[in-house]
Amino acid sequence: MNLLKTILQQEVYPALGCTEPTAVAYAASLAAKELSGSLEQITISVDPGVYKNGLAVIVPNTNGERGNLIAGVLGALIRQPELKMQILDGGAPELIDQAKKLIAAKKATITCDTARQGLHIEVVASDGVSTVRAILADNHTNLILLEKDKEVLFSVDPAAETVQQSDYKETLKGMRIADLVDLVEQLDEEDYSFLLEGVRYNQAISTKGLEIKKVGYYLADLKEKGYLQNDVFSSTKILTAAAADGRMAGLSLPVMSSGGSGNQGIVAILVPYNVGLWFDIDERTIVKSIALSHLINSYIKCYTGSLSPICGCSIAAGVGAAVAIVYQQAGKNIEQMTLAVNNLISDLGGMLCDGAKGGCALKVVSSTDSAIRSAYMALNDHGITSVEGFVGKTAEETIQNLSRISEIGMAEVDAIMIQIMQEKNS
Predict the structure, then answer these.
(1) pTM of the model
(2) Which domains can be identified in the chain, with CATH numbers?
């Protein structure tokens, strides 16, 4: 198994809009495609992580509508599951009107299944004659059940699927950062072109995101007025913030994701890319560093989970970007990479994830700033060591310690945040 290629295939892909509501739309489209008549009713059930992440984010092609429910109903009306994570590109004004009418008539509902662990989306759609159920589990496009009028059209044995899906993750989880550095040397021309395509996707939405007056715009304004210097920090923060602004505002442009997250893709890709350009690193080394950034992001999420209480942009993608910067300038220097990991996690290890929304751009800025700063200090052999806080003796140990804090120490955080969100929403 070429682990690098597998991870790029499984966890790095273009996505239009926030990946959680988009996945809901995809599941709904799978179900509704099997109906002969018009959609009459739809019920959606999601795990707490999907519920939280999709609650407040603007959905592309909906004129500013927010949340998993409108995305799901729109996906069911689009009925083009072949679009997968770009399903919302099929939206149209008349479909938005239909979706709103179904929701207003309470013929479209969504619930949060608090008993679920890990990504789980279940959609039941009906045209008044037939009923179809579709279930996604474990990742955003992984269909495990499709049935019509209780006749199974497609199914996967959950136990077998879990083993198959976790195969590469278990392999990845057992590796060390030194092994991941070795993997990027396997980069072939197909993967090279794919990684550059991700840069282009994320640059494009950053350019458009800068046109809306949000975080990236105001950072650029601060630079223009002399509050920020025109340096690698400000240019990279403006680039990533504007991309996150555009994505969270529902711009109809895809983002190349990382670890199943668009915002993490923005950090994992654009930070090492822009830093590499700033320091005149050759393109092949920059692209290999982006591959390493993706690997580190996926590696950390093997420990913290795909939708954890802590912000993946900071403690997964940010770490990946920091290690990538060290790789660009020092090659396989594991000691300095370890310092970079420890620096960033010491800085941002407690940053909470309270779902996808406009404020994510602020966290992207913090992650970007810390990634560059952490890498710079590490390249000068300065970093936080195991005598301080929860930092381990190795980068791997630090990541494992962070995982314990996230899974055990913060076990109630998601439940409390979702409760607060539900109270606000009601």
Answers:
(1) 0.94
(2) 17-163 (3.30.1330), 175-425 (1.10.4100)
